[in-house]
Specification:
The protein has 303 residues and is mainly α. The chain has two domains: 71 residues, no CATH class; 219 residues, no CATH class. The chain is built from eleven helices and no strands. It is elongated, with a radius of gyration of 23 Å. The two termini are 26 Å apart.
């Protein structure tokens, strides 16, 4: 159980470090060793939270708490990504066989307008319509609602979250093929991924948050099912809350920046490149490095 005061926390941490040293020596590959390391890491993270230089809770959350939670569930996020890729491919290849799929998903009005823009030589003109600020706010609110729906869907064993993730991936695959069939496949990625890099990454992680919630109830491990469910809910909430700035920035790019692809293609290319680097660093590289750094510091504490 979590410690109630600093003295108890210090006592627990010392005991865990001793147990971890013994377990790593005699059972280095054991799940028990992984469990003890995880528990010790949680206490170490709490110690970090109480340091003066990290007194800002938001800084601590995005610098330590969220990356470690992401690292903890890297396997689920990878599974979510694989599901997305598979259903993206399904949507793309099904659309190759039946070109009316685009109309089924996006409606006749959207397809006809896009086809008209293609004929005019401005295939992605749809992004230039509407008020930029209102578009930004509308897209941001909608994406946040989608992420919350994905997470809440995890209550039902993660099945709705998995379904909605697959549905979104199919839609993107059909959207891609609609342009690829007209020789605009590369342009699709150059334009859409100005905002799509962050947006789709956040959707994949939101789907993973729902799966974490469902997985915690279905596979509680060695603890009580309800306790495991509470832990899964806590981790899922952290993941979804951590995505809010990502969705806000993605919506900003879609509402105000993507429409500039004709006039400022250099700017949109730079934003896409930086977005890719950010996703790789913050959601993959940094959590792994932080976890290893934490483990190294724990080992030093043992000495």
């Amino acid at each position: 159980m979590p410690a109630d005061d600093a003295d108890e926390m210090a006592k627990d941490f010392t005991q865990l470090v001793d147990d971890l040293a013994y377990s790593k020596t005699f059972y280095p590959s054991s799940k028990v060793t992984q469990f003890i390391n995880s528990e010790a890491s949680k206490i170490y993270l709490d110690i970090y939270k109480n340091r003066k230089e990290e007194s800002n809770g938001l800084v601590t959350f995005w610098k330590y708490d969220l990356p470690l939670t992401i690292r903890k569930h890297h396997g689920v996020i990878l599974f979510s990504f694989i599901v997305f890729v598979i259903f993206f491919a399904v949507g793309f290849f099904v659309s190759m066989q039946d070109e009316t799929m685009a109309r089924s998903f996006f409606g006749d009005g959207y397809v006809d307008k896009t086809q008209e823009n293609i004929n005019k030589g401005n295939p992605f003109g749809i992004y230039e319509s509407g008020n930029p600020i209102l578009s930004w706010l509308g897209i941001m609110i909608n994406n946040i609602k989608v992420s919350l729906r994905f997470f809440v869907g995890g209550i039902f064993c993660g099945i709705p979250a998995l379904y909605w993730l697959g549905e979104t991936a199919v839609m993107v695959g059909i959207f891609d093929h609609f342009f690829a069939a007209k020789g605009l496949g590369i342009e699709f990625f150059l334009v859409v991924f100005v905002h799509g890099t962050l947006e789709l990454t956040a959707i994949i992680i939101a789907g993973a948050a729902g799966l974490v919630l469902g997985k915690s109830f279905l596979f509680p491990g060695t603890i009580k099912r309800m306790d495991a469910f509470k832990k899964g809910a806590k981790d899922g909430v952290k993941m979804v809350v951590g995505l809010m700035p990502v969705f806000a920035l993605a919506a900003f790019f879609e509402g105000l920046i993507t429409r500039l692809y004709n006039d400022l293609s250099i700017l949109t290319t730079i934003i896409t490149s930086l977005s890719v680097l950010f996703v790789i660093w913050y959601f993959i590289v940094y959590p792994i490095r932080l976890s290893k750094k934490l483990a190294l510091q724990l080992n030093e504490e043992e000495v």
